């Protein structure tokens, strides 16, 4: 098992402990993005976007000011809202229609978030380095993202 996987398994445990017993969604999202932002390498943004009235609306985040409204299909987050699958972008400059909230961002991963099997929104992570995210990040972030609803996971 790689160090990255060990670090993610620890992050899952920390997230579960941090959110245990808390039912307030805003509090949980806020603590989750803070935990991710301060735990993962090469991150300059961690944001939850909520799917409301057929668009993504900014939720709690860490990093520079973020876009407040994203249309379905627009940018990486909007693409994930449309296809409801994780998208890893090694170089955001090569992603057609990329929305640059932070000009320093060079790579991105956006994970769809589901609550009771219903699309709820996305978790968006940005990095100031190219090629930051991979399949290991995808595997664990897909487990971590919905923990805000009190879901348990087996990492």
Give the topology.
Blueprint: H1 3-19, H2 25-39, E1 45-52, E2 55-63, E3 69-71, H3 75-83, E4 87-89, E5 107-115, E6 118-127, H4 135-144
Helix pairs in contact: 1-2, 1-4
Describe this structure in words.
The chain has helices at 3-19, 25-39, 75-83, 135-144, and strands at residues 45-52, 55-63, 69-71, 87-89, 107-115, 118-127. The two termini are 12 Å apart. Helix 1 (3-19) runs antiparallel to helix 2 (25-39) and helix 1 packs parallel to helix 4. The radius of gyration is 14 Å and the shape is globular. The longest helix is centred in the N-terminal third of the chain and has 17 residues, at 3-19. It has 155 residues and is an alpha+beta fold.
Key terms for this structure?
155 residues, alpha+beta, 4 helices, 6 strands, globular
Quickly describe the structure.
The protein has helices at 3-19, 25-39, 75-83, 135-144; strands at residues 45-52, 55-63, 69-71, 87-89, 107-115, 118-127.
Number of strands: 6
Largest sheet entry? 6 strands, antiparallel
* Spatial separation of the terminal alpha carbons: 12 Å
Shape: globular
Q: What fraction, in percent, of the residue positions are helical?
A: 25-40%
Strand order of the largest sheet: 3-2-1-6-5-4
Low-confidence runs? none
Query: How large is the count of helical segments?
Result: 4
Estimate the mean pLDDT confidence: 93
Give the structural class. Answer: alpha+beta
- Portion in beta strands: 25-35%
Q: Nearest-angstrom radius of gyration?
A: 14 Å
Write down the secondary-structure element order.
HHEEEHEEEH
């Amino acid at each position: 098992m790689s160090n990255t996987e060990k670090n993610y398994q620890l992050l899952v445990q920390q997230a579960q402990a941090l959110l245990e017993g808390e039912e307030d969604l805003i509090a949980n999202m806020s603590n989750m993005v803070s935990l991710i932002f301060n735990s993962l390498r090469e991150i300059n943004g961690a944001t939850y976007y909520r799917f409301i009235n057929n668009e993504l609306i900014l939720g709690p985040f860490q990093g520079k000011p973020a876009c407040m409204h994203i249309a379905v299909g627009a940018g990486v987050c909007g693409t994930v809202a449309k296809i409801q699958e994780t998208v890893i972008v090694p170089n955001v400059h090569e992603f057609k229609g990329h929305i640059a909230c932070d000009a320093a961002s060079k790579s991105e991963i956006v994970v769809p978030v589901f609550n009771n099997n219903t699309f709820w929104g996305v978790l968006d992570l940005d990095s100031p380095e190219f090629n930051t995210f991979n399949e290991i990040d995808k595997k664990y972030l897909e487990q971590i993202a919905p923990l805000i609803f009190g879901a348990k996971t087996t990492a």
